[in-house]
Amino acid sequence: MATEFTVTLENRPGSLAKMGEALGEAEVNIDAIQGMPLAGKGIVKFVADNPDGAAEALNTAGIAYTTREVLIVDILDQPGTLGDVARVMSSAGINIDAVYVSLSGKVVLGVDDLAGAQEVAGGMAVL
User: Considering the domain boundaries, does residue 32 fall inside one?
Assistant: First the structure.
């Protein structure tokens, strides 16, 4: 398991820089990240190597965030593998509400049943 941070930023120059600088000054490395615009804001989801340090850095910088636990899986890099993983999760009744790739090539899954997803992933042919 890993901790995912979700930050809502102003969609303007410098907002992401402020967040990145706060994490960098705290010696927190980002392992996985995704960002997208939504309703005039910027939504950034990331997994850090030091969740406690990331929380402290964001708090110090006055940047609001939420957290949740996510599943990180190492899947084969070949066509159809994501579909296979998603189908197995779906067949187990697990909804995937977020998916992105870490900087090391692993797949981050936000799911509605983390314990169930861990069990399902444990029985799959993932790396």
Answer: yes
